[in-house]
Hints:
three-stranded antiparallel sheet, alpha+beta, single chain, 3 strands
Amino acid sequence: GRDSEDDAAQARKLRRMARKIIERVLETGNAERVRKELNSFDRRIVHVAVTETEGVGSRSIGDGSHKQIEIYPEGAVASGEE
């Protein structure tokens, strides 16, 4: 199994990836999906990174273990909604 050092390294990687996507979403005003399939622990890390940034929100999309995260500009109409 993974040890806590591996978990910490993975968490740092996920936060870096989330910040890059957040920056693009804020620049472009377009929602983006995290294309990687993430387990619930990893999705939480991304969601928490999003809550630390003003102007963006996030949600999980999909079913079961095949969930992805969409990061979107707050105040925008989310994709798939009218």
